[in-house]
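Lecture notes, unit on protein representations.

Consider one protein chain, 167 amino acids long.
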Amino acid sequence: MTRGSAWRVVTPDDVPTVEAFLQEHIETSVFLIANLRRFGPSGGPHPYAMRYWCRGNPIDGVIAQSTAGMVMAQCPGHDAWRPALACLEAPVTGLIGDGFQIHALRDAAGWTDAATTLDADEVLYALDLIRIVPQPGPGHLRPLQEEDRERILPWRIDYDVNTLGVP
């Protein structure tokens, strides 16, 4: 088993192994996993479709770039950012991921003084669902349904505008 090998393109055959690696870091890999499941590893015309690269055997790092140029990474405990940056094929429009890793990636690229729309670290939490204690009172938890759309959509728009700076 070789750790720290060169970055390579993720193929459809690699997807289960890549996803298993990302699941080990679920708190900071949710978007990487969701986009991989939705669009596959090879990119595409949709702005959120991503091209994925990985390194190591077993896999110890993943970097991906969306069609829109957004870069996401999961490579804990490594400083392999310059070779990872060499994989990217389009202009970078933003970086999303674990703060420590994204700051290291930004530093390796020389983008520490680049203008940004949003530059903030979000505190992430993990909660083992088995530890959730249902509280007494009216109501119950259920998956969202189509009839929830009118209530949820304004909340989502407000989040995008006030948190992400979307016009």
